[in-house]
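Subject: Sanity check before I submit

Could someone independently write out the structure tokens for this chain? I want to compare against mine line by line before I put it in a report. The sequence has 273 residues.
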Amino acid sequence: MKKNFITALVAISSITFTGASLAQDTISAVGSSSVTPLMETFGEVYSKAHPEIFVEVQGPGSSAGVKAAKSNTADLGMASRELKDSEKEPELVAKVIARDGIAVVVNPNNEVKELTSQQIQEIYKGEIKNWKEVGGADKPIVAITRDTASGTRGAFEDIMDLKQKVNGQKVSAISQHAQVANGNGALKTSVASNPYAIGYISLGTVDQSVKALAVDKTEATISNVKNGSYKVARPFLVLYKGQPNARTTEFLQWMESKEAQQLVDEKGYISIH
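---
Independent answer below. Compare away.
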């Protein structure tokens, strides 16, 4: 009886030890839905080489990513725009892990192939309301934007000068009649299903379901973002406050490596090297 009891204890200890040896440390990354697909890829590849690490990614938006980094509620914040002056703090570190263009997209059946920055601005302000005003069909334009927490929207507004002052405060100049989509995926789906819609998404997420327009006679391509001729572009940032723990520091260093930056290029974004 005693022998059986000891054997059972050994077995339980063995199971407990094995379970502990398989336990994973989690690195949490919270923020931009544009950065999320790239961060998920980083996490999957990194975990294959480091099975003791699991990278947990959530994409509620860039503003949430900044808050998560500042409050240390996540190991890493993610943002797809430059930080606002009001968000900057001495201990808050922002590292560029990739760059991305913002593609202005329409339905593939839309005959319009290019717009000027001025035309895009006027469409989103609600001043141009019909496609015939920009060389398209005689149909109302359905402008689709992102929610106010979106880094893509923040970058798009800055680049396209879609900000206005109200009572001394800078606010969005995008028309309140514009439809709002939560995330790149939702906006792309909306444009793909409406022949008269227009929207803007991460260049890295453009596929055959939508058509990217040339802006100011420049095609929305990776090479044009790299050479600076396509101006609708922004950084992908990871954020942290203070000194990260050892596992997060190693992951941060890996994201800047040749291996990780090759993944950036493969996914249709722009590497930092």
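---
OP: Matches mine. For the report I'm noting this point. Residues 5-22 have pLDDT under 50 and may be disordered.
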